[in-house]
Design goal:
Structural class: mainly alpha
Largest sheet: none
Strand content: under 5%
Number of helices: 6
Length: 154
């Protein structure tokens, strides 16, 4: 009975495989698009990013008048440092994609396992009072039958 509940039917397997392939496809396509957006950003976008950086540095340095709860050093960077997203998507794209697929697969398998456990055909969950009493009677008759066999052996 426990073996039957652990079996997954073929149509359900096909649905799970299709869901997994779809999930992996979406991940790879989105990561590739994000990488392309970073790598092939236009000069206007890069100039706007640089201008935003310069504005932020200027505004941040203006607020160093001693009235803030935390004193910061004045920022002297002329060029915006490479952002984490840019570094990750250009230099470590393979590592990021592999990690994302690995952990997504792990989460997918756990969810699939839990879903299969919840929606499985037979379970060892609660039983009715009638079933419990019938099992108890069967156990008692089995014990009395066993006792009779032992008496015959002696």
């Amino acid at each position: 009975m426990a073996k039957n509940s652990s079996k997954i039917s073929t149509p359900v397997k096909i649905v799970w495989v299709m869901a997994y392939v779809g999930m992996i496809t979406v991940i790879v396509v989105n990561m590739t698009q994000a990488r392309n957006r970073v790598m092939y950003a236009s000069d206007q976008i890069r100039q706007k990013d640089q201008q935003d950086w310069e504005d932020w540095v200027k505004k941040s340095n203006e607020h160093q008048d001693g009235q803030l709860p935390v004193e910061r050093k004045e920022i002297d960077l002329k060029r915006r440092p490479v952002s984490n997203a840019t570094t990750l998507l250009i230099q470590y794209y393979g590592v990021c994609l592999t990690g994302l697929i690995l952990f997504s697969t792990l989460i997918f398998v756990v969810v699939m396992y839990m879903f299969h456990g919840v929606s499985g055909g037979s379970s060892a969950g609660p039983i009715s009072l009638e079933q419990e009493l019938a099992a108890e009677r069967a156990a008692q008759s089995g014990h009395s039958h066993l006792a009779e066999q032992l008496e015959q052996v002696e």
